[in-house]
Design a protein that fits this description.
The protein is of the alpha/beta class. The chain has 16 helices and ten strands. The strands form two sheets. A seven-stranded mixed sheet has the order 6-2-1-7-8-10-9. The protein has a three-stranded antiparallel sheet with strand order 3-5-4. A hairpin with a 2-residue loop joins strand 4 and strand 5.
């Protein structure tokens, strides 16, 4: 099931769990660890904790059984409904892009399947078809995976006030509810340890990574290992969803993904490269006669280089100096010709700062200068969706799709 790791013979159980799954034993308490060790010692007929620690260090199968006793694999459907609404809005916007492959989502850890199945139900509810998305769900617990694949749940998995989804997607059989085969078929469950170095190499890039309430149980080293895996797996324009308390844990280049999102992140602001000019070159006029000598004009201040301004604003934003990034962009905006790239970057910065109105204004200015700027159109679609205007969001998405189609035709 899992590859052996070289562990010192006398390594403690706490050290073993830290090395294997990154667990900080203090997060679940020494009593929980002791109880798990006693259960495994009883099953093996062992009396010495030190003997058991050596045995678990040497036997990968026993190590995995110990993990089963330790981990917390409890969840329920649509836990924090606003999370699934946000992801559904993001997915619908992405799916509108013409010629785009199916949206790829990773749920890690997946526990008993409640979260990946909730994602599938949310995307179906938003109008996506089975061909438009796929979900990989991984967990380190074989028990949790078996429960997820069985798709049978007790009332404990349904804790929301609004249970309309249960009537639509479940069939009641006695005291259990069985999930619909269409939802089940949209999720692929696999055993995996996200801390293994080979984990990222075994998976392709994802549009959305759903990793809620894992980091809070890990040591600083374990957290950084998971973050590196996420950095390798998340597509450049992808969405990372964490537990509400986890974004501050992240050490890398991350910014909020929405104006009111405490749980969703995207990669830091990357300055857009200026688009090539599309206007036809102007004919070269014959040289004019030189005017008579005159007093030398007062030199004008040099026009800032657009790429330098974009790069510096992006650098400030990605180092946490969001206000300075906005001030830098605003200061240089009046010193150069109007630029759709600069207005788009300013829209992203204001959106990250939580000012949706100013962000929207900047995206509209982007479109005034470049009516086919599909990224600005998609950003406006998401903002419209977030303020509760699905009709306008759909108009922006359709405009973005047409702009992208025109761009593809011209290539």
């Amino acid at each position: 099931m899992s590859s052996a790791v070289n562990q010192p013979a006398g390594q403690s159980v706490n050290d073993l769990l830290e090395a294997w799954i990154g667990l900080d034993a203090n997060t679940i308490g020494p009593a929980a660890i002791d109880r798990a060790v006693r259960e495994r010692m009883k099953a093996l007929g062992m009396a010495s904790p030190s003997d058991y620690a050596r045995h678990a260090s040497a036997e990968p199968a026993e190590r995995d059984l110990l993990v089963e006793e330790v981990i917390v694999a409890e969840s329920w459907f649509f836990r924090d409904p606003q999370v699934f609404e946000f992801v559904a809005d993001f997915a619908v916007t992405r799916a509108a892009m013409p010629g785009r492959p199916p949206l790829r989502i990773l749920s890690a850890p997946s526990a008993g399947g409640e979260e990946p199945y909730s994602l599938a139900m949310a995307l179906f509810g938003a109008g996506l078809t089975p061909a438009q998305f796929e979900i990989d769900a991984i967990d380190i617990s074989q028990r949790a995976l078996a429960r997820a694949e069985a798709g049978r749940y007790s009332t404990n998995a349904f804790r929301n006030a609004d249970l309309g989804f249960r009537d639509r997607w479940f069939t009641v059989e006695g005291s259990q509810a069985v999930i619909d085969t269409q939802v089940r078929g949209q999720v692929r469950f696999t055993w995996a340890n996200v801390l293994e170095p080979t984990f990222a190499a075994a998976h392709r890039g994802y549009d959305v990574i759903f990793c809620r309430n894992l980091l809070i149980y890990l040591t600083p080293t374990g957290r950084r290992q998971v973050e590196r895996q996420i950095e390798r797996l998340l597509l450049p324009d992808g969405l990372l969803v964490l537990g509400a308390a986890e974004p501050p844990i992240m050490q890398g280049d991350w910014i909020p993904a929405g104006t009111a999102s405490l749980f969703a992140l995207r990669r830091g602001v990357h300055a857009p490269r200026p688009r090539p000019a599309t206007a036809a070159p102007r004919p070269i006029a014959p040289p004019r006669p030189l005017p008579p000598p005159a007093k030398p004009p007062i030199p004008s201040p040099p026009v800032p280089d657009l790429e330098d301004v974009l790069a510096e604003a992006g650098r400030l934003a990605n180092t946490g100096q969001l206000a300075d990034a906005i001030a830098h962009a605003e200061r240089h905006r009046g010193l150069m010709p109007p630029s759709p790239e600069l207005f788009f970057l300013m829209g992203m910065l204001w959106q990250s700062a939580g000012d949706a109105d100013r962000a929207e204004g900047c995206f509209h200015k982007t479109l005034y200068l470049d009516g086919g700027h599909e990224e600005a159109l998609l950003a406006l679609a998401l903002l419209a969706r977030q303020r509760g205007d699905p009709a306008m969001a759909e108009k922006y998405r359709q405009s973005a799709a047409r702009a992208m189609a025109r761009k593809e035709e011209s290539r």
